[in-house]
Amino acid sequence: MTWSATARGAHQPDNTAFTQQRLPAWQPLLSAGIALPLFFCAGLAFIGLGLGLYYSSNSIKELEYDYTGGSGLSNCSVCAAAGQGRAPPPRCSCAWYFSLPELFHGPVYLYYELTNFYQNNRRYGVSRDDAQLSGLPSALRHPVNECAPYQLSAAGLPIAPCGAIANSLFNDSFSLWHQRQPGGPYVEVPLDRTGIAWWTDYHIKFRNPPLVNGSLALAFQGTAPPPNWDRPVYELSPDPNNTGFINQDFVVWMRTAALPTFRKLYARIRQGNYSAGLPRGAYRVNITYNYPVRAFGGHKLIIFSSISWMGGKNPFLGIAYLVVGSLCILTGFVMLVVYIRYQDQNDEDEEDE
Amino acid sequence: MWRWVRQQLGFDPPHQSDTRTIYIANRFPLNGLYTPQKFIDNRIISSKLMIDTPTSPITSGLPLFFVITVTAIKQGYEDWLRHISDNEVNAAPVYVVRSGGLVKTRSRNIRVGDIVRVAKDEVFPADLVLLSSDRLDGSCHITTASLDGETNLKTHVAVPETAVLQTLANLDTLIAVIECQQPEADLYRFMGRMIITQQMEEIVRPLGPESLLLRGARLKNTKEIFGVAVYTGMETKMALNYKSKSQKRSAVEKSMNTFLIIYLIILISEAIISTILKYTWQAEEKWDEPWYNQKTEHQRNSSKILKFISDFLAFLVLYNFIIPISLYVTVEMQKFLGSFFIGWDLDLYHEESDQKAHVNTSDLNEELGQVEYVFTDKTGTLTENEMQFRECSINGVKYQEINGRLVSEGPTPDSSDGNLSYFSSISHLATSSSFRTSPENETELIKEHDLFFKAVSLCHTVQISSVQIDGIGDGPWQSNFASSQLEYYASSPDEKALVEAAARFGIVFIGNSEETMEVKTLGKLERYKLLHILEFDSDRRRMSVIVQAPSGEKLLFVKGAESSILPQCIGGEIEKTRIHVDEFALKGLRTLCIAYRQFTSKEYEEIDRRLFEARTALQQREEKLADVFQFIEKDLILLGATAVEDKLQDKVRETIEALRMAGIKVWVLTGDKHETAVSVSLSCGHFHRTMNILELINQKSDSDCAEKLRQLARRITEDHVIQHGLVVDGTSLSLALREHEKLFMEVCRNCSAVLCCRMAPLQKAKVIRLIKISPEKPITLAVGDGANDVSMIQEAHVGIGIMGKEGRQAARNSDYAIARFKFLSKLLFVHGHFYYIRIATLVQYFFYKNVCFITPQFLYQFYCLFSQQTLYDSVYLTLYNICFTSLPILIYSLLEQHIDPHVLQNKPTLYRDISKNRQLSMKTFLYWTILGFSHAFIFFFGSYFLIGKDTSLLGNGQMFGNWTFGTLVFTVMVITVTVKMALETRFWTWINHLVTWGSILFYFIFSLFYGGILWPFLGSQNMYFVFIELLSSGSAWFAIILMVVTCLFLDIVKKVFDRQLHPTNIEKAQLTEANSSIKCLDSMCCFSEGETACASVGRMLERVIGRCSPTHVSRSWSASDPFYTNDRSILTLSTMDSSTC
After folding, report:
1. Measured CA distances, A144 to A28, A152, A164, B399, B825 (Å)
2. Which of A98, A256, B755, B1110 is 20 to 30 A from B48 in CA distance terms?
3. Which residues bind Mg(2+) (chain B) (predicted)?
């Protein structure tokens, strides 16, 4: 900084809109005059949307059944009792009978739900090796430390897939049987077990390690399955496009849920006679009951749900829109009253003067 | 501490100190050390690098790194500016004497001890001790305009022993040692001595500021000089003065620190709650270690206490983002960039002097909006400091200058002066051209008062600049030169005015060399030998010269304030002069008394000896000098007094009135006489004629003073209708401050105007200090222009320097420097107001957005067993403050104008709306914090309920995971927080639009990109396609809209109701502004002090908007724009102020 005096006017600041803080500007004012119409318009729009969302959600059907078997009413209680506190419990199967009085509009999606299961626990959530799951051979042999204690088997072999998430893979299985006429035979309803995982997860994020001699089993040689699994990862499914790390059940499970109560997509029903939905009649779900949840007070549910553009049955959005919309309008009215009352008061004030 | 610079000149220098390398080494470590200190100071660094962190160290470290980088860049920039100015000087070619010859080199190569040759009009490359010049007496002239702005020529002299060494060959023979002080920043202090070895004996010579040539100054009127470099590079006084002087902290910064502590408490309590809940939860094994989530052996076996502590620390790390790390850097940037607007402002540019406003520290911008007390100097601040000689009193007779003539002011008939007729007859004798042909009787007048005028033209330090001056010592003056060719340069405008006046009356000061002063009396040249100058200082308040008249008499001429001269006088018309001085002062003129003393040769010898001793003393030189001066300047014979008028600056009255309307108390602190000060105060509007003026002056004893104070306090309480003005003088003030601070403050607070006269510089600072520490802790501002104001400028919260005629010392030491007093109103009401609003919103918003940011993370812990699972991806955690939400608030804080600047300037009352740090009060802080929490609850629970029983949100029935949930919350948050900023913005330039909508757009584009790729170097691919899947869900879109609207709904409702029911003055002004420019009723508010009056008017106004009837307009128009009304209306206005409201 110099203070020396130079030519006259040399220090004169530039006369530009920016330096003089005179940039052209829009100067909105949030006054009652603007806010009132805004509130009414927003309120009306929200109520309209809310109604739409509410009915859209209401048109979705959902059928759910808790097959944990704690209560003793269900025939799954035997299995539940048998597997008490053990992991893994012995194989057991039970069934759920239900009937549909009318067509359950399709496409119908089959979900399973677990409660009290903290997939979002940090120790649990980090216990995976994305590099291994992407099929990197080096990572296959050397799982990351986060996987511990499911990093190496007791024999010291690397576990593939490693980590707590993979180890706790949900292993109940369901099959759906339809009885068209009362007393008639149960026909198995085809369950489409593909397309339940995100496309990118299935096609890009999860990859099997490169085949050795054309065999996936050889590729996984020298690794151990997770301790809770009864078979190695390459035997998850006979379908070569659905086994190993790209088994869709596995991929779905690996996307950890946000909250302790969560659902996972099990299958879609969209084939043959059932593409329009589940026709009316009696149904039976055969459940292979393997997964212990009672140890941590959890429940297992099976859910049939139809789906709209906005997903499953979710009345929250519609109701919330209605509430906020009505609040807007209510506030608008209160504001209007205040506005008018103050105006009257001011008029009086003026007359007093 | 004394540093010994020893050099054997002419030989290879054995003690070279390479200061240039010190300089380089000093610069860079300084920056590195400085940056972290600042953070530690602000308690921002939390425990960053823990062992078991839920987020990677990079996540937390990156923002910190960013903050440090930006701060380093800012400091680097300032460093760079310094570097450029350094380079200019450093690369300049200089001539250095090396081994007997002249060597051309660059100035950066100058070493301490080098002999440097500087030619005419060159800048000195280092601080040099003058050895010799081309003149025989070893003197040279320099100007220090670039250092302190003083444009006058200053004479510097060499020690006589070295002054003769004018050639290289001669210099070669010199053997000398210089001892001098360690480098210090004060430009006007230098003490040292030179020990010269001549013919085997050592001669010791004192060195003072007069032999030191400062780097940056320029050599004038002298062909060349030789000097020894004593300080080079960063050790030069100029470089030392580059240091930022101000360590002042603004009120905003203080409340910011309070808020930080509150947030720190919130952070710690959240961490404690989480830790405790975690362990209550984990008491049951099924939660602690369910079969699906076993621990490792190591985790099982680690100690409980250790785990507890590490868990607590992990929570701290998880929540640490609630402490807005980037707040600090954003504030820093805002202040730094924002301060440019002050310098750029054309309204603060003074055309006549080509000076714009300077910001010396950007740390205090917002403090300009908080000022409650303004302390202003009078001379040069309120006045132009452009002196015009008006009157004088000689030997008890008063004269007035009318059209360049000295006219006796009609002496009263009862005057006992026998020379009545004589004075009347010569009343029109002196004319400006009188010295050409002078009538007989004028000569008589001059002769009569010969001594007076000689004193005027000899007792000063004025320099002359004219082309002929170069040859000053060489020969007799040509007698036919015209006075108009002479131009006087003086450091004090009073002196200049006096010397010029003397010249008009026929006694022309022609010039001085070091030894002689030449005066032409009525065409006759007289030479006086100048023996000593006893420089002016503000403690003595006088200066004097000792000269030897042509007749051989040794005379002392003294000039100074009447209070410091009259007590020392033993002869002359003391009483009459005193009366005259008081009369002058009443007219608002500045007075100086002039006296002389004749020495016998014996007396003079003693004086000479004592002066020499004092001047060569190495320790306590100043004290010793003061003693000697006291000894010399006594037993004076009074000659008379002069009165000089100082014109008021433009618009001072309006500015003071506006300051007062803004609720600012104005105090005038001046060194002037009581009467002068009062009359200037009256003429500048500081005091009104309607004011009841209380006086606390000439208090001699403690008890009297206390009694008087109590009396004044009683009067104020009895008479609370009228406004009071208080006049205090320096001595009474020191009494009042010593024992009765409380009482005095009580009186002062109840006075609307206070005037302190006869103040010493330190007293000014003390008054400010007293106000500063009074219970209300008001924010003070000091304005001044002279060196005597520096202490008060540095003491006050905000120091403003006026770049005036008394040099730049005040401007250099100030926080802001402006050219005119009137600019204060724009500086405070517009810039201060804007900066305050901007930074207050900035601070509040930062805390708000970080609450929004981290509270969902805290809430999420309740749903994940307090396992420290992060809700957001680490990249989002890192970039939230750096990229997604940083720019809109920065641009807002630079450009926001919540109200038109002209309205702000024309309605100073609006300034009251932001007083007492209102925007950062606990109430507003709580509002923002609660708003942040409620927004966070809406984001989190909105998303939570949306997921509900975890039904699918996708049209294909697939499920989301925890990362999608977090991303949903984050998306809503980024949009809400940005739109919230948009709601606060009132001034939407294209830049605001760009950054606001650009930030949201950037977030989307970035997320699409970030989620669209499997990042090869990242360990986990959690975010792969998460954002895209989220956007492919219709429900998510609806939820985002719903949550954003709900969040802002609360805020809008509050804003609208507030505006409707309790509008602030600013909001009302905004409304008026918006509704064309009907300023009818609203402006009434500017006058009515009472809130109630204003409120009713305001309500009435709102209704009337748009249909303001002509009667309304006419009724209020008369007083609508008080800022520009004339004198009369202000007076009536202020009575209205006090009586009706």
Report:
1. 56, 10, 12, 101, 67
2. A256
3. 377, 379, 785, 789
Q: How far is CA A343 from CA B1101, B1104, B1116, in A?
A: 10, 10, 22
Instruction: State whether residue B243 sits within 8 Å of chain A by CB.
Output: no
A46 token code pair: 């929200």
**pLDDT at B1106 > cutoff 60:** no
**Which residue reads 């305009």 in tokens?**
B145
Torsion angle, alpha carbons of B268, B271, B276, B281, to 10: 170
At residue B997, φ and ψ (nearest 5 deg) are: -70, -30
A72, A333, A123: which is closest to B54 by C-alpha? A123
* HSE-CB for B539 with a 13 A CA cutoff: 9
Which residues in chain A are contacts of B149 at CB distance < 8 A?
3
User: What pLDDT digit, counting tens, does each position of B318-338 carry?
Assistant: 898 888 888 888 888 898 899
Residues 6+ apart with CB under 8 A from B182: B1, B2, B3
The reply to whether A258 touches chain B by the CB within 8 Å rule is: yes
The tokens for A271 are 């084939």
Q: Do A295 and B343 touch (CB under 8 A)?
A: no
> Please, are residues B523 and B443 in contact by the beta-carbon 8 Å criterion?
no
Rounded to an integer, what distance in angstroms lies between the CA atom of residue B383 and that of residue B589?
Answer: 11
Residues of chain A contacting B1049 with CB distance shorter than 8 Å: 324, 327-328, 331
B997 touches chain A (CB under 8 A): no
Choose the closest CB to B950 out of A3, A262, A346.
Answer: A262
pLDDT-based confidence at residue B15 (cuts at 50, 70, 90): very low
DSSP string for B408-451: E----TT---TTHHHHHHTTT---TTTTTS--HHHHHHHHHTHH
Are B363 and B249 spatial neighbours (Cβ–Cβ below 8 Å)?
yes
**pLDDT tens across B288-302, in order?**
788 888 888 888 888
Element (H, E) at B105: strand B101-106
Residue B344, min C-alpha distance to chain A (Å): 5
| Interfacial A residues in 16-55 facing B (CB < 8 Å) | 19-21, 23-32, 35, 42, 46, 49, 53
Instruction: Please say whether the beta carbons of A64 and A299 come within 8 A.
Output: no
Q: Which residues contact A48 (CB under 8 A, 6 or more apart)?
A: A325
Using a CB–CB cutoff of 8 Å, tell me whether A302 touches chain B: no
Q: Per residue in A123-139, pLDDT tens?
A: 899 999 999 999 888 88
> Tokens representing A115?
């409660």
- For chain B positions 492-521, those within 8 Å of chain A (CB to CB) are none
Cβ neighbours of B944 in A, within 8 Å? 259
How far apart are the C-alpha atoms of B681 and B694, rounded to whole Å?
A: 14
With H, G, I as helix, E, B as strand and everything else as coil, classify residue B346: helix
Q: What SS3 class is residue B909?
A: helix
User: Residue holding tokens 């309500």?
Assistant: B1099
At residue B474 the predicted structure's pLDDT band, cuts being 50, 70 and 90, is very low
Give A-chain residues touching B965 at CB under 8 angstroms.
258-259
CB contact under 8 A, B296 and A27: no
ipTM for the whole predicted complex goes beyond 0.85: yes
Chains A & B: contacts with CB separation below 8 Å: 306
